[in-house]
Amino acid sequence: MSETFRPRNADGTDKSVDARFLRLPSIAERKLGRDYSAPIRLDPRVLDQMQQTIRELGSKYAETLAAQVGLLPPLIQRACAGIAEARGQIYTIVHDVRGLAGTFGHPIVGSFAKSLCGYMESSSGLDPTIMRFHIEAMRDALEDPQPDAGLARETLRSLELLIDAAGDERSVG
Amino acid sequence: MARSVFEALTVLAVDDSKHMRLLLTELLRVLGVGHVIVAGDGDEAWSQYLKHKPDVVITDAAMAPIDGFTLARRLRDADSLAFGRIPIIMVSAHSELSAVEKARDVGITEFICKPLSPRLLYERLIAVVNRPRELVESAAFKGRDRRSEGMTFDGAATSNAVSFL
Fold first, then answer.
1. pLDDT (tens digit per residue) in A44-82
2. Is the ipTM of this complex over 0.85?
3. The dihedral formed by the CA atoms of B119, B120, B121 and B125, expressed in degrees to the nearest 10
4. Angle in degrees, CA B124, A20, B152, rounded to 5
5. Nearest CA in chain A to B134
6. Closest Cα partner for B100 from B154, B21, B20, B45?
7. A16: contact with B, CB 8 A cutoff
8. Does B39 touch chain A (CB under 8 A)?
9. What pLDDT, on a 0 to 100 scale, did the predictor assign at position A2?
10. Do A119 and A130 form a contact (C-beta atoms < 8 A)?
11. Residue B56 C-alpha, separation from nearest chain A C-alpha, in angstroms
12. What's the sign of the alpha-carbon dihedral A64, A106, B27, A33?
């Protein structure tokens, strides 16, 4: 198969290029022959097994998650005082939580972590109230075995308003 | 002949979190992937790539000292005309438009936003395994088809994954 492009030079003259487009076999074809195509649909039994795997590993991760969140409160004061090391430590932990908590069955903790990450990424100075409220929200969601999704949404909205208000104050100031 | 294409696959899973490495390893094993190799950052992943020549790479974005974007650039530089581009699936907590565009520009094949779901992992893996690989050959250039690098992304994706091919 080949196609011809008709691009133009700066002076308007033709600058055609002949090019061949080659189609190499897919990985599935290369491994198992031309007629093979892997099934698009995931076997429900395999899906069940995968979800079971996540639940099993999630119980181990829960201990790590609780320990990580527990490390955050002592760092707030120094991070808000502008000490880069403390800020970096908080961000590293919260970013990790943002990525993993939802995967391992703690989506509410993950959403609070995502909000805090966003705040830290967009703010040069850190507000101790915003930091503390986020971390407390994560801790409360962790301690509640069945956190209320509606309450979590409200809390998240309140945190967003708090962040917006702090941004407005900085703009005015 | 292997029972499924996954049995014949070697997948390199890269993440700085030991929990995520373990999760990816176990999920890929449940899917029947024949050989799973892990690495904790881009540098270790590069060494593992050279040693094992995997069929697919699944990588996190934010890692130190070498992140997933730098790893992807190295892998793209190593793409061969004979075997085309190795599929790279990026799994990242960074779902911002800038991160997705950066992933596109360094040659990521599939982008999945964390939290990772089993179904999404399967769908993206099947997509890269079933998809033919395309190359361009002209008098001045011989290599992978780079038209996807100009692809626009409006940030309006409704799912948690973006495909760049």
1. 999 999 999 999 999 889 999 999 999 999 999 999 999
2. no
3. 100
4. 45
5. A23
6. B154
7. no
8. no
9. 46
10. yes
11. 9
12. negative
Tokens linked to A117: 């990450």
- List C-alpha distances in Å: A67 to A97, A140, A152: 11, 14, 21
* DSSP SS3 for A40: coil
Report the run of H or E that residue B47 belongs to, with start and end. helix B42-52
Out of A33, A37, A64, whose CB is closest to B19?
A64
With tokens 């929200």, the residue in question is A137
Q: What is the mean pLDDT of each run of 10 residues along chain B (165 residues)?
A: 77 95 96 96 95 96 92 86 77 87 89 92 92 73 59 52 71
Is any Cβ of chain B less than 8 angstroms from the Cβ of A110? yes
β pairing state of B10-14 and B142-144: unpaired
The predicted pLDDT at position B155 comes to 47
